[in-house]
Specification:
- The chain is of the alpha/beta class.
- The protein folds into two domains: 7-105 and 213-265, Rossmann fold (3-Layer(aba) Sandwich); 106-210, 3-Layer(aba) Sandwich (Rossmann fold).
- The chain is 41% helix and 17% strand.
- It is built from nine helices and nine strands.
- Helix 2 (55-74) packs parallel to helix 3 (90-96) and helix 6 packs parallel to helix 7.
- The relative contact order is 0.18.
Amino acid sequence: MNTVNKITVRWLNPLGLSHYDELMGQALSAIKNPTTTLEVVSLNNNLTLDNLEYRYYESLVVGDTVRAAKEADENKVDAMVIGCFYDLALEDCREICRDTIIVAPCQASMQIAASIANKFSVIVGQVKWIEQMKERAYHYGYRDHLASMRSIGISANALQCDPEYTVKKIIEQGRIAMEQDHAEALILGCTCNFGLYKKVQDELGIPVIDPLIAAFKTAEYLAELKVNHGLTVSNKWSSEPPPEEEVEKFKLNQLPTPIGNKLIYN
């Protein structure tokens, strides 16, 4: 009789506000495998940011995000998702972890899109986001797969305020991406678009990727590979973490825990 190995996946909301934790927790809990324990965590800081649309905002939470990854690694979390489509601090978090696999929505979504279509477009909230997201797409090797990035003119913190209007705008820009840019699949370029993909997909008739689902299921899959088949993270060469003796010398282990709100779904 085969033993079913349980895994733990953490979804990190890289903000100090917890108002999305429960909504995202419910959405993720509905799609997780029965053997997965889901943690939904937000940061513990004094910032009242409700979005990370600007590089300045992003820079203020990078350190806490990396420390949250280190805390996950120390507490045997199998995989952690950085819940922002900018994939902030992805490489930094991967470097510090010796066991926890780090996943981010932009990379996970593009990996999936490139597996089911030759060309995809990303529907973003604001024009402001495009340059930084293009940098990520090119860095990941998807320059030739990217048909376009098109904006719906809605900020991240407003995407769920009127879901019907958001869906309407996504369909408008998605149709342009499909008909003019020849996109064969769409990616919704913000984790705050959770739960909206189905209506868009039904209307346009091409695959539409929800980054919340893409990132979480990728993390869950990689965690299962690690637990069941020993495929763990690399700590070699460019992936080498800092020496423990240096971390201790610099007293980095004495920094306060960055974890604020935490919800657990078994």
